[in-house]
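Handout, page 2. Input:
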Amino acid sequence: MTAAAPIDPRARHVSPWTTREKFGRLFWYIAQATLFRLSWRTMYGWRGWLLRRFGAQVHPSARIRRTVSIEVPWNLAVGADSVIGDHVILYCLGRVAIGSRVLISQYSHLCAGTHDFTRPDLPLVRPPIVVADDVWIAADAFVGPGVTIGTGAVVGARASVFDDLPAWKICVGHPARPIRDREYHGDIGHETPRD
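Output:
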C-alpha cells in the first residue's frame, strides 16, 4: 500500500457548491417544503412546472407525487408519461436522467452522489444515473451512483443496484442481477422486444 500525500484536514470542510448553487438549494428547500409538498395530490402539472422553474427538465405528462424528495432539481430530467411514486428520494447531486414511461415505485432511492474513499478528505463525486425508457423500479429499491438501467428492465422490490443492468431483464437481489427476460402478455400495444 502506498502512502497518501498529506492533505490539509480543513479541506474536508470546504464546500463543493458555488454560492449560487447554495442559494438555489436554499430556495428549493423552501419551495419544496411549501409549494411542492403542500400541493393537492393530483396537481402533477403544478409540481412539474415548479420543478422546471428550478432548472429540472420534466415532461408535462410526467407525474411526480408531492411526497417525493428531490435534491438539486436542476440535475433532474424526467421523460414523458413517467411516474415517480410516494416518498421516492431523487438525490441528484449528479445528473439523474429518467426516460419515458418509467415507473419508480414508493420509497425507492436514486443516489447520484458519493465520496472518493481513496482520499482522506473524502471529496464529493457525482456520477450520473441513467434510467432508460420503459423501466420499472419496484418499491424500496436503491440505485447507486454511476448506474445505467437498460431499456425495459425491471428492478425488483428492495433490490440494490450498484452496476449497470441490461435491457429487458428482470433484476433482483443485493446486488441486483438479471434472473430472466421481461416479456409482455396480453394486448397492450407492445410486443416483447427481440434481439
